[in-house]
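Mods, move this if it's the wrong board.
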Amino acid sequence: TQEDPAIKLQLLGLNMTALTLSRIENNLRHVCDTELIAIARILNVSMVGWSRRIRNKSGSPGQTGAYWSE
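Not the wrong board. Structure tokens:
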């Protein structure tokens, strides 16, 4: 569920609920830079790794429709 990550994000000072995370997961809400950094932190992943995956998947950074997956 999104409850545990939501609590961790709240402890970092973000006002995120499980519903907010669900909306992000289903592409119904955008994520701002500070939220993305906090999400990476609680998931213990590097932002560098994410940008490389997006770049490799889309062909160029910032291209619309670029998503990554494990």
